Amino acid sequence: MNLVLYAVPFFLIALLAEFLWGRMKGRDTYRLADTINSLQMGTLSRLNAVLGIGIGGAVYGTLTNQFTLFDMGTSDWLVWVLAFVAYDFCYYWSHRMGHEWRLFWASHVAHHQSEEFNLSTALRQTSTGYLGFVFYIPLYLLGFPPYVIITVGSLNLIYQFWVHTEHIRTLGPLEWIFVTPSNHRVHHAKNPEYLDRNYGGVFILWDRLFGTFEPEDPERPCVYGITHQLASWNPLWANFHVYHDGVRDMLRTRHLADKFLLWFKGPGWRPHDLRDEPKPDWQAAKYDPAASPFARAYTFVQFWIAVPASFAVLLGGLDRPLTLAAAGVLTFGFYVQGAWLEARPFGAKLEWLRLAAVLGLAAYAAMTTGWPVDVSFALAGYVAVSASCLLWAARSGRVSLEVAPGSMPAQITAGGSRP
Ligand SMILES: [Zn+2]
Ligand SMILES: [Zn+2]
Fold first, then answer.
1. Which numbered ligand comes closest to the C-alpha of 123?
2. What single string gives the DSSP state of each residue in 1-16?
3. Which ligand is closest to the CA of 125, given by its number?
4. Quick one: which of 53, 90, 156, 201 has the fewest CB in 10 Å?
5. Residue 285 C-alpha to ligand 2 middle, in angstroms?
6. 143 CA → ligand 2 middle, Å
7. Number of domains in the chain
8. Does 257 reside within a domain?
9. What is the whole-number distance in angstroms between the Cα of residue 151 and the centre of ligand 1?
């Protein structure tokens, strides 16, 4: 039983509580654009389930039909405890390879791009985790029932939520056994001495055992993010930039072996003939384009409409063409929100295009009776209100999407984002 979706409301309440706590204590760890970007990544990681292109389930099914070492039931508590520990062991190796091979880093990088560290960072998840299932095959071969594996897997992920905070410093003896906010901060830090450390999900014991543990040193405060900063609020680029850069390096290097090897080396590894290129500055200033107050407010509202809409599409039981079309419009919407937060001049045009697409979707659903006609009317009303806001913004002349005069321009992302 996958418990993650059920936990989402509690995640959001905890996120709000952490935000208010930070405000009260004068130590706010949230930035609007960063939080929206992280939550977009979390929503997209769930929404992409509508594509149904994961092969993990099929492989597991075939394996358990052919061969299992032990016959285990779901009613024995020992099976559950062993599965929980064994899952975390597999998670450790999956996570470690997620950092040590570019092939897996290309997917896992999605969790690490934030330059802040708060509960929204925990929800920052990949949409391309199609290969990670291979690390859990031993659990199926041992004979743990799939129901048990999926349940303990979701409990493992839920556990990892609370450790993404700066408000809890250290937890005494618990630091020895468990993944905690302190040792997970080190995992998210890009300080050279903290790189590739603390891979555990629930137990930090694996890191102590396999030599990848590093404690947090108060003298060396964590600097969060990836070495070569993403410098973008585009959630699609965030999911694909490492693949893009890997293919680009494959094409550029003249060393035949390196074209292949680069996917099985660390993300900082360079092909032999590309090693003279300048190294990224891990201490670069945080990415922070100055979107206008209107752009920020409008995006904030649109984002919080798109999140429940995404879950409605995910759980709504619509027919496949309508599900795919709705998920496509929502995904485009997240991209447009990113463009607004980046203060892109073309953001407003894209938003008009998106509203037209929503209207088209509402009409299509009404004609095919894909959902109750009231939903289409509600969507038309939503488009009318959004369009009125846009028109008011354009005509009032006091608000603009673009960068305020004299402030920092949006940074260009096309130069690549090698970690
Ligand atoms: Zn990681
Ligand atoms: Zn994390």
1. 2
2. ---HHHHHHHHHHHHH
3. 2
4. 53
5. 21
6. 29
7. 2
8. no
9. 21
